[in-house]
Amino acid sequence: MKIISSISEMQSLSGSLRLKEKKIAVVPTMGSLHEGHLSLIRIAKQNADIVIATIFVNPVQFSPNEDFNKYPRNIERDIALIQKENADVVFTPSLEEIYPKNFETYVTTEKSSTVLEGKFRPTHFKGVTTIVAKLFNITKPHVAIFGQKDAQQVFIIQKMIRDLNFDIHIVVAPIVREHDGLAMSSRNVYLNVQERNDATVVFQSLQYAEQLITNGEFNTFSIKNAMKKMISSKRTVTEIDYISIANAETLDELDMILLNSKTLISLAVRLENTRLIDNIVIGN
Amino acid sequence: MKIISSISEMQSLSGSLRLKEKKIAVVPTMGSLHEGHLSLIRIAKQNADIVIATIFVNPVQFSPNEDFNKYPRNIERDIALIQKENADVVFTPSLEEIYPKNFETYVTTEKSSTVLEGKFRPTHFKGVTTIVAKLFNITKPHVAIFGQKDAQQVFIIQKMIRDLNFDIHIVVAPIVREHDGLAMSSRNVYLNVQERNDATVVFQSLQYAEQLITNGEFNTFSIKNAMKKMISSKRTVTEIDYISIANAETLDELDMILLNSKTLISLAVRLENTRLIDNIVIGN
Question: Domain check: are A84 and A48 in the same one?
């Protein structure tokens, strides 16, 4: 497995692989890998000849008050895990080369970045679309793999690909969960024992919503209220940033569940200092 | 010569040309071609195996009060001119395919787009960087040719390429001028006889500035004043939007000319309803 940190070296390797008609998949990560990331690499391998995993903790997608500095980093462990999955390249660029002096060019999805997560993290998706556009131009993939855990991120990257005509196909990988249903996240390490126990309510509330809908409750206001009540019962839950029930194709909030279209139920919950997100998609 | 309007057809042609190791150059235009554009195509031919000229009048780079609707269009004549230059492909996409419903992704150079032209055309460069990023992803060039006439556009596109890691080399083509020095522009057709006569003052003022500097005048305030006086003497000049003497590497305004670095002298002048721009670069 090659470990590359230079942008021009990565570009020329991808360029020559393309000339050899190799199909390239990229798996962008911020490192601190868990089973969710590893599942992305496995899916990448099924979809391409060459798998490039990238590791870069992107400061531009963190707000000043967020956890950029304390975000978990363990590059040696990450590289070992990626190697075990038989990826071909790990791309680990430096901060200085990704954001050189006088960097000033950003990619923004102006509407989708303002809802859901965007309301609570107003500059987050601008950081995401900018780094992903850069990584696309550097790794030159045919296919890119993203996890459904960050549902809005997937939506926005697909929008960016369509709007800016990136000739890249996105594969969305299902959420990988702990045995008790908690969605895997690099931020789960922040949780203490009590918080980790309470955190299961995040996914439980989504399952509860699905059950309510199956039982015929289509009023999203009632469903959200039931979820809220369930979540608030946990002692370490300090804030529910949002509970959203939206058209999965547009992210527009719904008043009533429409069973003939896909509905994204998503939420963000704070347990003391840790912010967790999760989602399910229901309907056809 | 191929005429292509479909984005996917253009992408797959460029993809297969790349697999054949053909070097691709793109010349992005808004049509209404003059000698300046044709010189870009000739330079493209010297730099690549395959030359793609694009024609697209990009609404996003015009403000609502600007001349998008009356901008000169003559696609048949343009195609004939491009064919005469032995380009290989003309790409003429539709408005609907370039900006589909719910388009929302923009590329912005946040600092460089606010000075010079950007002060008078606040959304202009956002439109330029967005369409150029799209055209890069559609035509997949190794080389792109832009004219020095739009000096700030060249600066901003080079900034975008560096910041977003487009693996594309820019060739900047010198300004092509009429016999009396007026820089060629698709907008010159707007000028009536008197305005066309007066318009020569735009380049004359740049030559005058260069002469003053050669004679030892390094104070940019004095140089700008002398230029202003010369330009204002013309009856049909209704407004001088700006006269700038800036560091060509940063676009920062200069108080004093520094002969050991490149200086961009640029200006925008309105003759009744027509807005003309021009520039020279002096120094090393």
Answer: yes
Residue ending a domain, choose from B112, B140, B173? B173
Q: Tell me if B15 and A167 make a contact (CB, 8 A cut-off).
A: yes
By C-alpha distance, the chain A residue nearest B156 is: A105
- Judged by CB atoms closer than 8 Å, whether chains meet at B104 and A137 is answered as no
CATH of the domain at B20: 3.40.50.620
Q: Which residues on chain A are in Cβ contact (under 8 Å) with B140?
A: 167
Q: Which of B100, B106, B164 sits opposite A137 (nearest CB)?
A: B164
Q: What is the pLDDT of residue A284?
A: 77
**If chain B, 284 residues long, is cut into consecutive pieces of 10 residues, what is the mean pLDDT of each piece?**
98 98 98 97 98 97 92 96 98 98 98 97 97 98 98 98 98 98 96 98 98 97 98 98 97 94 97 97 90
Last residue of a domain, one of A151, A173, A195: A173
- How far away is chain A from the Cα of B97, in angstroms, using its nearest Cα? 10
Are the C-beta atoms of B247 and B227 separated by less than 8 Å? no
E strand or H helix that includes residue B7 = helix B7-19
Domain count across chain B: 2
Residues B227 and B125 in one domain: no
pLDDT of residue A114: 97
- For residue B180, tell me if it sits in a domain: no
The long-range contacts involving A112-116, CB below 8 angstroms and separated by at least 24 positions, are A112/A152, A112/A155, A112/A156, A112/A159, A112/A251, A112/B104, A113/A156, A115/A152, A115/A244, A115/A246, A115/A251, A116/A152, A116/A242, A116/A244, A116/A246, A116/A251, A116/A266, A116/A268
Q: Is A34 assigned a catalytic role?
A: no
Using CB atoms, which residue from A11, A110, A112 is nearest to B106? A110
- Residue B54 forms part of a structural domain: yes
For residue A26, the cross-strand partners are A52, A144
Tell me: do A112 and A202 sit in the same domain.
no
Question: How many degrees, rounded to 5, is the angle at CA B122 between CA B118 and CA B127?
Answer: 95
Chain A residue numbers touching B9 (CB-CB < 8 A): none
Whether residue A225 is found in the same domain as residue A110: no
- Residue B76: per-residue pLDDT: 97
pLDDT of residue B284: 76
User: pLDDT band at A86, cuts 50/70/90?
Assistant: very high
Could you tell me if B146 and B237 lie in one domain? no
* Domain identity same for B152 and B211: no
- Name every chain B residue with its beta carbon within 8 A of the beta carbon of A130: 164
Query: How many beta-carbon pairs below 8 A join chains A and B?
Result: 87
pLDDT value of residue B177: 98
Closest Cα in chain A, distance from residue B17 (Å): 10
Same domain, A132 and A53: yes
Q: What is the pLDDT of residues A163-216, one digit of tens each?
A: 999 999 999 999 999 999 999 999 999 999 999 999 999 999 999 999 999 999
pTM: 0.97
The token pair that represents A21 in the structure block: 């008609």
Residues A22 and A159 in one domain: yes
Residue A272 buriedness (CB in 10 A; 0-12 / 13-18 / 19+): middle
Query: Which residue type does A266 have?
Result: S
